[in-house]
Amino acid sequence: MGADVVEVVVFVACALIVLGGGFGVIWFRNPVHAALSLVATLFGVAVLFLNMNAPFLAAVQVIVYTGAIVVLILFVIMLLGVDIEDDLEAEPLQYQRAVALVVAVGVAGLVVAGVSVAGDELVSGAQSVTAVAVDGFPNVSAIGRLLFSEYVFALELAAVLLTIAVVAAVVLARRPAEVEALPAEDASLDPPEPVEPEAEEVFD
Amino acid sequence: MDGVDAGYLVLSAILFSIGAFGLLVRRNPLIMLMCVELMLNAVNLTFVAFGMMLGDLAGQVIVLFVLVVAAAEVVVGLGIIVAMSRRRPGATADDIRVLRG
Questions:
Q1: CA A174 to CA B95: how far, in whole Å?
Q2: Which residues 60-89 of B have a C-beta within 8 angstroms of A?
Q3: Is there a domain that residue A147 lies in?
Q4: Residue A131 — very low, low, confident or very high, per pLDDT cuts 50/70/90?
Q5: Minimal-distance CA residue of chain B relative to A15
Q6: Please, are residues B51 and A143 in contact by the beta-carbon 8 Å criterion?
Q7: A120 within some domain
Q8: Residue A5 contacts B, CB cutoff 8 Å
Q9: What is the dihedral of CA B49, B51, B57, B60, to 10 degrees?
Q10: Range from A13-22, A90-99, B48-57 that averages highest in pLDDT
Q11: What CA–CA distances, in Å, run from A85 to A28, A33, A176, B90?
Q12: What angle do CA A23, A27, A33 make, to 5 degrees?
């Protein structure tokens, strides 16, 4: 009974951290602040993994996401200039935010409705025979055995994908000799003047 | 226990919606990448939660592969952003209209 209370308390605390970090990512104007909010979210998800008996994934989450991916994003932010801030007031597409809000709330509402309709029977599948998780048992060795037996082809494909990504990053980041930066204020970026009256005349 | 199980799914749905909203609204390509990461994390949370409910380790294995794909995606995406910013400093997602013929 005590373990259940601990699980609920940890879940609530981590859910608050995760949601707060998520809102921070889309709220902060400065990309550095957004990246740090992303770290909060990823750490919260890692603790939730621990809460769900997945210690290996929690470690991988911290090492790969907060240790590699967010650091990479921060490196690029530093490379491009830290002082670039978004103008959150500008809304180039009319009603873009309202439509995006409807989409987001709709997606969340659909899933929440599905969960509440399902009630106590959230899952109805049969227990796996090849990948059984034992409660409270450290599952690192079980995951390793699965990776190198049943999912070994996918593992090899993942290795190929990572190699391709490294080669692509090297090719993309190489500085070509002939490319020059365009001027920041480019006249071609401005919207063209409206030409409707002329067009009407042509068609008349 | 059941309440927490449903809580994981609801939390990941909300996190996914936050990421989708940010991806649709923000114009800085770096922040859009971060929003994609939020959505991927929400999906990972769902995988592990369903794996825990079913007593199945395959959910955790799939999350591992999602992590690999996310890492590759971030590497290529950041490379594209760096190459793009070298050509046009301070570019946003709206500047895609430069490609208009």
A1: 23
A2: 60-61, 63-65, 67-72, 74-76, 78-83, 85-89
A3: yes
A4: low
A5: B11
A6: no
A7: no
A8: no
A9: -40
A10: A13-22
A11: 9, 11, 28, 10
A12: 95
Overall domain count for chain A: 2
Q: How many residues does chain B have?
A: 101
What is the number of helices (H) and of strands (E) in chain B? 3, 0
Six token digits for residue A126: 């049969």
pLDDT of residue A165: 93
- Point out which residues pair with A132 in neighbouring strands: B56
What is the extent of the structural domain holding A162? 138-175
Dihedral angle over CA of B36, B42, B43, B49, nearest 10: 170
Report the pLDDT value the prediction gives residue A95, as an integer from 0 to 100.
82
Q: Kindly state whether residue A23 falls inside one of the protein's structural domains.
A: yes
Does B34 sit within 8 Å of A35, measured CB to CB?
A: yes
| CA-to-CA separations, A104 to A99, A110, A204, B18, B26, in angstroms, rounded | 9, 10, 45, 7, 14
Average pLDDT taken over every residue of chain B: 87
pTM metric for this prediction? 0.83
Q: Both tokens of residue A50? A: 């621990």
Say whether both A5 and A75 belong to one domain: yes
**In chain A, alpha helices (H):** 2-27, 31-51, 55-60, 70-80, 96-118, 140-149, 152-173, 196-203
* Single-letter amino acid code for the residue at A92: P
Residues A3 and A78 in one domain: yes
Could you tell me the end-to-end alpha-carbon distance of chain A, in angstroms, rounded to an integer? 82
Complete domains list, chain B, with CATH? 2-99 (1.10.287.3510)
Residue A10 lies in a domain: yes
Model confidence over A180-192: pLDDT tens digits?
Answer: 666 655 545 555 5
The residue behind tokens 């709220």 is A27
SS3 A150: coil
State residue A134's pLDDT score: 64
Closest-CA residue of B relative to A122 is B6
pLDDT band at A77 (very low <50, low <70, confident <90, very high): confident
Q: Tokens at residue B8, please?
A: 């994981």
